[in-house]
Design goal:
The chain is α+β, with helices and mostly antiparallel strands and 293 residues long. 18% of the residues lie in helices and 33% in strands.
Length: 293
């Protein structure tokens, strides 16, 4: 199952990708006699028991003949989780990124936060801030929490995953390292593009064996595998939830592999007119431009 959120003349709608079309989930569910527990995209994602309803609707798409559909070029993609309560991020969580950083893998997860103002959809423009000349990219696999909880045992952790999406942890390196902590340099407006769709766990399979890459203006800059993660998804969910209650719709950005601009020689930073494409095997392709405010 895959789903996303788009802005249409009818408002923000939850959609399933189906061939070259986007199927309006609520309209199709209603036509099939299935009543979803909620109607707005964020309410749907945060309502307990919604996923089985979405699965029922998705499974009926094989017989889809008519209903409300949208063309990808005729809508604006929003982040597939448009209003998360928390955005939790991991630093230095790839072995190859630790190597280019010149540091050993951390003994415990390095956790920081981003804010909701960072969220940007597929096709949107990453805005270059006035206070930084060192804006960098970071391809990341993002976990969406489906079932909340605290003190989640590791062996139960994957049952709390709604799905996975593609993210870009955009970072203003001069602010990030100059501040002595990472939150401001990671949290400027538009600094977390996401999407275009969420892929359910059964679509993805093993999340720790996926190719992950980023190209900048057609040149491949990052090319790795999620097998290089220091701390896997199940461990992270258990570790974070020890003291922080996870809620449905929370995002966990799981870190980036080697190839970021800051550690290149010469260094590479984003500039007006750049185009980025991030691909994660079995999850999807996220594309964004870069520009001035």
């Amino acid at each position: 199952m895959r789903f996303g959120v788009v802005r249409t003349p009818r408002g923000d709608r939850l959609v399933f990708p189906w061939g070259s079309k986007l199927v309006d989930v609520l309209d199709f569910a209603t036509a099939q006699g299935i009543s979803l527990p909620a109607t707005s995209p964020m309410e749907v994602l945060k309502t307990e028991g919604t996923v089985p309803f979405l699965r029922r609707v998705w499974d009926l798409l094989e017989d889809f003949e008519e209903g409300t559909t949208y063309e990808e070029g005729g809508v604006k993609f929003l982040p597939p989780v448009p209003w998360p309560e928390k955005i939790i991020c991991l630093g230095r969580n790839y072995i190859d990124h630790c190597r280019e950083h010149g540091k050993p893998p951390p003994k415990k997860p390095i956790i920081f936060a981003k804010f909701r103002n960072t969220l940007l959809g597929h096709g949107g423009k990453i805005l270059l801030p006035r206070s930084s000349n060192m804006v960098d990219y970071e391809a990341e696999m993002v976990v969406i929490v489906g079932k909340g909880g605290k003190g989640i045992p590791r062996e139960e952790a994957m049952k709390h995953v709604l799905g996975f999406t593609v993210g870009n942890d955009v970072s203003a390196r001069d602010c990030q390292f100059g501040d002595g902590q990472w939150v401001r340099g990671k949290s400027f407006d538009t600094f977390l593009p996401l999407g275009p769709f969420v892929a359910s766990p059964d679509e993805v399979g093993n999340p720790h064996s996926l190719g992950i890459s980023l190209t900048l203006n057609g040149q491949k800059m990052q090319d790795s595998s999620t097998s290089m993660m220091v701390f896997p998804v199940d461990f992270l969910i258990s570790y974070i939830s020890t003291d922080i209650t996870l809620s449905p719709g929370d995002l966990i950005c799981t870190g980036t592999p080697a190839g970021v601009g800051y550690f290149r020689n010469p260094q590479v930073f984003l500039k007006d007119g750049d185009r980025l494409k991030i691909e994660i095997e079995k999850i999807g392709t996220l594309e964004n431009s870069v520009g001035l405010p």
